[in-house]
Amino acid sequence: MTAPPQPPAATPGQPSATPGLLYSQDEEDLRSAVRALLADRADAPTVIAATESDTPYDPRLWEALASGIGAAGLLVPEKLGGQGASHREAAVVLEELGRSVAPAPYLTSAVVATETLLGLAGGGGPAAALLGELASGARTAVLAVPFATPPAGARAALTSLDGTVRGVADAAVADVLLVPTAEGLYAVEATASGVVVEPLVPLDLTRPLATLTLSGATGTLLADADASATAVRRGLLAGAGLLASEQLGIAEWCLAETVRYTRERHQFNRPVGSFQSLKHRMAQLWLEVVSARAAARNAADALATGSPDAPLAVAVAQAYCSGVAVHAAEECVQLHGGIGMTWEHPAHLYLKRAKADSIAYGSAGSHREAVAELAELPAP
Length: 380
Fold this sequence. Notes:
380 residues; 3-stranded antiparallel beta sheet; globular; 4-stranded mixed beta sheet
């Protein structure tokens, strides 16, 4: 896939280029392909059934998404076996995954782990080889840090390949664990001796968490401490920035489904959506969703173009979009009335995903603090 032309990045001493917030035709085509796949393989009954099973991830869905559509390699250059696209295209995929709350390790493997490895792949070696495997969808990887770790908090979770890391997203289904230590970043096989992955019971059943315990494990050293710290920060920044697109997808589905339901549900011989108080609530939510789209697209574009304002754009997007997703999901549950409280209706999946996402890669509060700090920095 060829990325659409991007506006030039800002040069030192110059203001940032105008961000591209609109979707290109290639991005819309990608959206259509992903949405059709998820409608076929990850509709609401299928996702609910998956949360009640021991295997929430459908390997056939991941194969179709990762290798069939090629979504796993969007961020990976063609010379390393990827699609050579950008964060804008990856953001579109995450919008659709958020819209369906489909259980797939895309954010953790195809974004965070991949972006971390991209920070190390310049010299080739094992990092580049692993990138090729992730881009093909043949394997998945996760960064072994707590899911709540913000980009500014990127640091070694362990001093060596001994110890415990709690709350690692998708560790239970990963093939490779990227473990930051005081010595550097290691790639550890999830099935290696000395590795214990203990699943936890998360709030969001569509994204499993696990406790990772290493005891005398061995792995491949990918980079020293300094290089790995920079790469991990890069991975977490991309994860936080594109998580905003997943939150946008959640909010869009909740708004659309709520409007549809309130048009069909009648009370006193009138659609309940015609009541003024509900109109005002949905109008307010629409304004929030539109603003969230602008913030999420700005973050994706800043990451795609390598803008020096990318950390600020990501912090703004997370500070705003996490709250919008939660609000939209809460309104969806409430305005569906009694049916919104049932296990059979998917509204609870969106509320749980929105709540879990609101503290992933940093809470809204931590990102507001980052905005305040970055806004005080002198222009580059």
